[in-house]
Specification:
Belongs to the ABC transporter superfamily. With 272 residues, the chain is α/β, with parallel strands linked by helices. The protein is 40% helix and 22% strand. It is built from twelve helices and ten strands. Strands 6-7-8-3-9-10 form a six-stranded mixed beta sheet, sandwiched between helices. A four-stranded antiparallel beta sheet has the order 2-1-4-5, with helices on one face. The chain starts with a strand and ends in a 5-residue tail after the last helix. The relative contact order is 0.17.
Length: 272
């Protein structure tokens, strides 16, 4: 198993945020964590990447216990993260942002930079543009690209579709599938449970700091409780049909990033 989270407990002061979560991610998988706001999804990712300390339990990566390993050493070990809210450096150029993702690596990173440009042609086009002047969709591409510059074995993605127009959401999820196809394991936290379950191999449902369900993602698409709580009551077949309709109608749908720049982003395909 590439990544194992074993009975972890995490506190914010006296408040228990995680209450004994156990999650495993095998090499080559896309695994998703779904659940309501406050369920502990982001805290789980921060604990894996070393941004939150454990109260008890263990995090194991590639056969090693990394529970007490500093965050920067976890990056070197092979854990990359694109955080919630993107977290780009607004005053830096696109290329400077990407190179920050490789700050701890001593070897030449031109190969990784070329691969990121291949996945995200828009970043190559705008390499000299300040990150803070880009659209929301472009900034999300930049956040993912920066994480990939660390050459991670596992990529932690926190809410990659947040605030994006529907066409951009489809594009980001297609890119996640392509990243996985190229060999990077993915642990995905996502409010858009429909999209997440459609691309994941396995999934965990979190509620108030605990795992309440764990199953193949396809099974959860047709789980009555999951449908009622997170999928609007639709079945897996309904969701697939709805996704096709959404793709066809996305040009006429507005969203938080429905700007001329975002429209340009929506037309940008992935290299597959």
């Amino acid at each position: 198993m590439l990544l194992e989270i074993d009975d972890i407990h995490v506190h914010y002061g006296k408040i228990a945020a995680l209450k004994g979560i156990s999650v495993s991610v095998d090499e080559g998988e896309i695994v998703t964590l779904i659940g309501a706001n406050g369920a502990g999804k982001t805290t789980t990712l921060k604990t894996i990447s070393g941004l939150r300390s454990l109260s008890s339990g263990a995090v194991r990566f590639d056969g090693r216990d990394i529970s007490r390993m500093p965050g920067h050493k976890r990056v070197l070990a092979g854990i990359g993260q694109a955080p919630e809210g993107r977290g780009i450096f607004p005053g830096m150029t696109v290329e400077e942002n990407l190179l920050m993702g490789a700050y701890a690596r001593k070897e030449d990173v031109s190969k990784e930079l070329a691969q990121v440009h291949e996945l995200f042609p828009r970043l190559a086009e705008r390499r000299t543009q300040a990150g803070g002047t880009m659209s929301g969709g472009e900034q999300q591409m930049l956040a993912i690209g920066r994480a990939l510059m660390a050459k991670p074995k596992v990529l932690l993605l926190d809410e990659p579709s947040m605030g994006l127009a529907p066409m951009l959401v489809q594009q980001i999820f297609s890119i996640i599938v392509e990243i996985n196809r190229r060999g990077t394991t993915v642990l995905l936290v996502e409010q858009n449970a429909q999209q997440a379950l459609q691309i994941a191999h396995r999934a965990y449902v979190l509620e108030t700091g605990r795992v309440v369900k764990a199953a193949p993602a396809g099974d959860l698409l047709d789980d009555p409780q999951v449908r009622a709580a997170y999928l609007g009551g639709a079945s897996g077949a309904d969701l697939a049909a709805a996704s096709d309709v959404a793709s066809a109608e996305a040009d006429d749908t507005s969203g938080a990033d429905d700007t001329p720049e975002a429209d340009d982003d929506a037309e940008e395909g992935t290299s597959r």
